[in-house]
Design goal:
binds zinc ion; mainly alpha; single chain; two-stranded antiparallel sheet; 191 residues
Length: 191
């Protein structure tokens, strides 16, 4: 039943992800328009008219899968807590309180997905447009505040090849593509 419920969410999840991607894409294009205002017409066209359809389709499919995983994960959590309660009766009250918190857990997981996916989509589209103009990499930039993780802070100002995403805290990805990462890629465009 739960799996059917997750499936029933598909049209809604598609709509949410599509709206988000349209918004991210419009912002990415606006950034590029400003950035390339003084570049040669040809390079400018290569960037602004880059074919991003395939990347967008992939992003959309991944996001729909992530959104649909929310009710299944919440159910799994309740299931596991219930089993623990059965094994250890003395902790029933504590476990009941944990089960009641499942809504909060699902909400914070939804927030993490939303934040991470917006940044990741933006990064993927930026990469697609930069590569179309012959860019081989970018300068890693952080949000430059106290919340930046040390591993990400160490990347600030460094050149990264599009084909070689670094591994930070055991996770591999480009600026803006890691969980809760607010860093961004400043593309390097060849002369
Ligand atoms: Zn970061």
């Amino acid at each position: 039943m739960l799996r059917r419920y997750a499936e029933a969410l598909t049209p809604w999840a598609l709509g949410v992800a599509e709206r988000m991607l349209l918004d991210v894409n419009a912002r990415d294009l606006a950034n590029w328009r400003a950035l390339t205002a003084e570049m040669q017409t040809e390079i400018r066209r290569e960037i602004l008219e880059a074919p991003t359809g395939e990347r967008t389709k992939e992003l959309l499919a991944q996001q729909v899968t992530l959104i649909k995983s929310l009710p299944l994960e919440a159910a799994q959590r309740v299931h596991e807590l219930t089993i623990r309660g059965l094994e250890d009766g003395t902790r029933a009250k504590e476990i009941a309180a944990e089960i009641m918190r499942s809504g909060e857990v699902a909400e914070s997981r939804a927030m993490l997905i939303a934040r991470t996916e917006v940044a990741r989509s933006s990064s993927v589209l930026t990469q697609a447009r930069a590569e179309n103009a012959g860019s081989t990499g970018y300068i890693w930039r952080t949000a430059r505040d106290g919340d930046v993780r040390p591993s990400h802070k160490a990347m600030n100002g460094r050149f990264v090849r599009w084909g070689e995403p670094p591994t930070l805290d055991n996770l591999r990805g480009h600026a803006g593509c890691l969980p809760n990462c607010r860093c961004y890629a400043e593309p390097v465009i060849p002369d």
